[in-house]
Design goal:
Elements (H helix, E strand, L loop, with lengths): L12 E2 L5 E2 L9 H10 L2 E4 L2 E6 L18 E3 L5 E5 L6 E5 L5 E4 L7 E9 L2 E8 L4 E6 L4 E5 L1 H8 L16 E4 L5 E4 L6 E5 L5 E6 L11 E7 L6 E6 L4 E5 L5 E7 L4 E7 L2 E6 L3 E5 L5 E5 L25 E6 L5 E5 L5 E7 L1
C-alpha cells in the first residue's frame, strides 16, 4: 500500500498507436502533461517522481539490437555512463555520453560483468566490476586498464566455504561489489554460495558471512550489495532477491534489520537524496522513502512479460519495463533502467 499522504494520481502513459492510455484505469486531468506525452513519449510516475520515458535513446551503432543486458550501469563525475553487456558489439563495458552517443569500448577483457561500482581514490576514478561467469573482481581505470583483481581461485582458497563438483571444479558467481568507508571490498556471490566475502583494499582476506538459506541471516540470491549513508550510522544494504527481502547489515557482517519485504524479487538498489530506488525483476521499479514506505511504482508490466529474458521487441510496451535488472540515478535525478533481456534494453527516464 502507498503512504496515503504521498499517494497521488498516476499520470497516464502513451500507447504505441499514439492514444493516451490510463494506467490502472486513472486518466490524467492535466492537458499540458497529456500534450507532452503525445509529442515526446510516455510520461509515468507519481508524486515528485514524474519522468518522460525514452526507450530507444542509446546509440546502437547501426545494429538492430544493443546486445544482451544482464549487467549494470555506473556514472563518472563528468556524467558519462558505463554500461556492461554480455554479448554483441559492445560486449564488455561500453562508455556513452549523457545523450546516449557511443564513445568507446573500454579496452581489456571483462566478460559478463554483472555488477559495477565507480569510486574516486587518490583523485582518480575507478570502476570495480564483478563477473558472474568468471567469479572474478576487477578494479579498472576509466581507460579499461586493470589495476587490481581478485580471482575465483583466491576466493575459494581464502573462504573455504565452497565444495567441488564431481569434476573437481568450484563455482563462484559474483553478482555485486561495494567498498566500505575504510576501503574494505565486499563481494556478493549471489548465484552460487550466497556468501558475502570481505577483503581489505589491497586484497587481504578478512571473512565471509551469510550463505544459502531462507531464514534471517541467510541469503537466497544475494544479488546486490551497496552502502546506505542516509542514517547517522552507515550500513550495508543487501538485496536478498529470491527471499524478497532488503536488509541492513553492519560492516563486520552482522545482520541488523529487514527494511523491506514483499517486493517482486528486488535485485538492485540505488539512492536519490533520501529515497531508495529498487529494480524488481518481476517487471517493476519502486521508490521507497527513508521510512522504507513505497512512494512510487514505475513502469509496472501489464502484459505478462515480467521477468521474461526472451521477450521480443514487438512485445515491448511503451512506458513499461520487462525485467528490471538495475536502476540508477544520474546527478540530475534522471533515472536509467536496464532490463534483463537477450537483445538488450536500457531506458532513460528524464525527470520532469
Amino acid at each position: 500500500m502507498f503512504n496515503k499522504k504521498k499517494q497521488v494520481l498516476l499520470i497516464a502513459t502513451l500507447a504505441l498507436n499514439g492514444a493516451v492510455l490510463a494506467h490502472e484505469g486513472v486518466h490524467s486531468k492535466n492537458p499540458a502533461v497529456q500534450l507532452d506525452t503525445m509529442k515526446q513519449g510516455a510520461i509515468i510516475g507519481q508524486g515528485e517522481f514524474i519522468f518522460k520515458v525514452n526507450h530507444n535513446w542509446l546509440d546502437q551503432q547501426g545494429e538492430d539490437h544493443l546486445g544482451a543486458t544482464h549487467g549494470d550501469i555506473v556514472f563518472d563525475e563528468e556524467g558519462y555512463l558505463y554500461v556492461s553487456f554480455s554479448d554483441g558489439q559492445f560486449k564488455g563495458i561500453a562508455k556513452f555520453s549523457a545523450d546516449g552517443k557511443f564513445v568507446k569500448k573500454l579496452k581489456g577483457q571483462y566478460p559478463d560483468v554483472h555488477g559495477m561500482l565507480i569510486r574516486k581514490e587518490g583523485g582518480r576514478e575507478y570502476i570495480y566490476a564483478v563477473s558472474n561467469t568468471q567469479g572474478k573482481m576487477w578494479k579498472i581505470d576509466l581507460q579499461g586498464n586493470t589495476v587490481f583483481s581478485i580471482n575465483k581461485t583466491k576466493i575459494v582458497e581464502d573462504s573455504k566455504v565452497y565444495k567441488a563438483n564431481d569434476k573437481g571444479e568450484y563455482r563462484v558467481a559474483l553478482t555485486s561489489v561495494t567498498v566500505g568507508p575504510d576501503g574494505d571490498i565486499f563481494l556478493a556471490d549471489g548465484y552460487s554460495s550466497n556468501f558475502i566475502h570481505i577483503y581489505t583494499h589491497d586484497g587481504k582476506y578478512k571473512k565471509s558471512f551469510g550463505g544459502w538459506g531462507k531464514d534471517i541471516g541467510r541469503f537466497h540470491q544475494a544479488h546486490d550489495i551497496t552502502i546506505d549513508t542516509r542514517f547517522e550510522q552507515p550500513y550495508l544494504v543487501i538485496c536478498n532477491r529470491a527471499n524478497n527481502r532488503i536488509e541492513h547489515w553492519d560492516f563486520q557482517g552482522n545482520f541488523v534489520r529487514v527494511i523491506s519485504e514483499g517486493l517482486r524479487m528486488p535485485g538492485k538498489i540505488a539512492f536519490w537524496e533520501d529515497n531508495m530506488i529498487v529494480a524488481e525483476l518481476k517487471g517493476r521499479v519502486s521508490i521507497l522513502d527513508k521510512d522504507h514506505e513505497i512512494v512510487a511504482h514505475l513502469g509496472e508490466n501489464s502484459v505478462g512479460l515480467s521477468g521474461n529474458y526472451h521477450a521480443e521487441p514487438e512485445q515491448w510496451k511503451q512506458g513499461e519495463f520487462l525485467a528490471p535488472h538495475t536502476a540508477k540515478f544520474d546527478k540530475l535525478g534522471n533515472l536509467y533502467v536496464m532490463d534483463w533481456n537477450y537483445l538488450g534494453r536500457v531506458t532513460q527516464l528524464v525527470k520532469q
